What we know:
Layout: H1 15-25, H2 46-58, E1 62-71, E2 77-83, E3 94-95, E4 98-100, H3 108-120, E5 127-132, E6 136-137, E7 142-151, E8 164-171, H4 172-175, E9 182-188, E10 191-197, H5 207-222
Parallel strand pairs: 1-7
Antiparallel strand pairs: 1-2, 1-4, 2-3, 2-8, 5-7, 6-7, 9-10
Protein name: CoA pyrophosphatase
Cofactor: Mg(2+); Mn(2+)
Pfam families: NUDIX
Amino acid sequence: MNKPILKSDQVALGAADFFARSKAKLGFDVPAGLYDPNIIPTSGDPGTDKMLEIIAREQPVRPAAVLIAVVDHPEPTILLTQRAAHLNDHAGQVAFPGGKIDATDASPLDAALREAEEEVGLSRDFVEPLGYLDLYGTAFGFRILPTVAKVRPGFSLTINHSEVDDAFEVPLSFLMNPVNHQVHSKEFRGMERSYYAMPFAERYIWGATAGMLRVLYERIYSS
């Protein structure tokens, strides 16, 4: 693992500013690449983009949805989960509430809300969807469409321990500060590809979760 590369540029981190920017910049158009194997998501990293091209040829598309739940505290937070240690895939990793899109889901948004209810008991009555983030591809063939949402405080959670071990909140100001965005690299079939990590206290946020948080930062604050 390489040493982290730290970015020093700062952004405005106020809650009102974040939610206003999100509403202005996001929408609910579903990208065709969520289901079309011929439309390959891009990451901006040449090694990762090449990996996604290879994966698209070798594996079927696996459409998925996650909820980026931004809790509207005076100092807002993002709700994350720790996946159950007994799972076959990504055991123990930090993730957003979410999962594969079922045929019975009316939309990716509906899938994200359903999964949040199933995994941690977050009632959709507390959730105000703001729009979809960019489509995110993974090495396992998942095409993930994140829904960014404003969550009203006062909800209670019920952890489904068959899927997650814990749910916790991380300050939005920490996750949207590029100083905390470490860049590492790993090898994929002889090619070097980059990935993000955002360690917070005892939680190691990395991989697809950190990658989507970085996309959120770039979409809301850099574009």
